[in-house]
Design goal:
- With about 160 residues, this protein is mainly beta.
- The protein has 2 domains: about 5-45, no CATH class; about 75-160, OB fold (Dihydrolipoamide Acetyltransferase, E2P) (Beta Barrel), CATH 2.40.50.100.
- About 10% of the residues lie in helices and about 30% in strands.
- The protein has 2 helices and 10 strands, in the order αββαββββββββ.
- The chain has helices at about 5-20, 75-80, and strands at about 25-35, 40-45, 90, 95-100, 115, 120-125, 130-135, 140-145, 150, 155-160.
- Strands 3-10-8-5 form a 4-stranded antiparallel sheet, with no helix packed on it. The protein has a 4-stranded antiparallel sheet with strand order 7-6-4-9, with no helix packed on it. Strands 1-2 form a two-stranded antiparallel sheet.
- It is rod-shaped.
């Protein structure tokens, strides 16, 4: 490290910080030699904020069919995190959700629909490929947690089957 401060060091460090931001870098390490026993080593690090650390969840259920007049009482599992529900169907990939085969068509399933294991629940478009997402088990669709045309991440709960 340098024994005496150089006036240009501050300007040099500021220029490195600007270069870091301008080029969207996270770290720069530079060693500047002034002489035989005189040098300056600078490490500029930008703290990265991780945005996609937690899976995206959609709290508002989508009602695709009219609700019956006498609805069942809401349980604690229905109001808690849908991803923790034992009947949650997670997204196996990143993509865009489509609840029907084509725009204007009937959805594959609706809240209250009985489903068989392997039956198509919805489609996720990923890289221009339409992927049919099958029911992992037989049961009844209790909640649909995504809207038609919504982007989803890997692991995002799509619906709940009980």
């Amino acid at each position: 490290m340098t024994q005496q401060p150089h006036d240009s060091d501050v300007a040099f460090i500021q220029a490195l910080a600007e270069l870091l931001n301008k080029n969207e870098l996270t770290e720069l390490v530079v060693k500047r030699e002034y002489g035989e026993d005189d040098s300056l080593e600078v490490r500029v690090v930008k703290q990265a904020t991780v945005v996609a650390a937690a899976p995206v969840t959609y709290a508002a259920p989508v009602a695709t069919a009219p609700a019956p007049a006498a609805a069942a009482p809401v349980t604690v599992a229905a109001t808690s995190d849908p991803a923790a529900h034992p009947g949650a169907v997670p997204s196996p990939m990143v993509g865009t959700v489509y609840l029907a085969a084509e725009p204007g068509a009937e959805p594959f399933v609706a809240v209250g629909s009985p489903v068989r294991e392997g039956q198509t629940l919805l489609i996720i478009e990923a890289m221009k490929t339409m992927n049919h997402i099958p029911a992992p088990k037989s049961g009844t669709v209790k909640r649909i947690l995504v809207d038609d045309g919504t982007p989803v991440e890997y692991g995002t709960p799509l619906m709940i089957i009980e």
